[in-house]
Amino acid sequence: MSLFNLDDIRRKIRGQGQQGFQQAFEDYNKNFNQLQERAKSRYKNANKWGLIHKILGGFGAVFSCLSLIFTFFDNAQITAVFSGISAIAITANTFLDPSKRERQLSEMEKLCEFIELDFISIRPLFTDKKTSDLSKEKALENLGRSLRELSSKVNERL
Fold first, then answer.
1. Is residue 41 part of a domain?
2. Which of 31, 93, 113, 123 is most buried as measured by Cβ atoms within 10 A of its Cβ?
């Protein structure tokens, strides 16, 4: 069965009725929990990337100012060293792009929270026998879409 494919889910639940929908929902929930664990290990690093961004930016700014100040003095070696440190910090900040990584990881965390709330809010649909099959299919379709998005974000290289 392909990941979160509604047609595969329909084939699996055909003839099983309520129990089939509950099983499909639980399968989605199990897959979400696995994805969420992988995502958590990645988005725990978001704060680290934010800190790296601030440190490199701070080094770049401080050493740029120091090299500017030392241009007014006759010590060219210190000016060159400060300019070099500034250039390295700014280049590393640009190359690593830690703010983008922090933003992507934060978006992944928000998506996990959103999907988790979805699971909580639609769980009653799958335990209530009065809920129509169409409503359950629609809920599974929406969950599948969100889970595919999360899966692609988790597997995305930063």
1. yes
2. 93
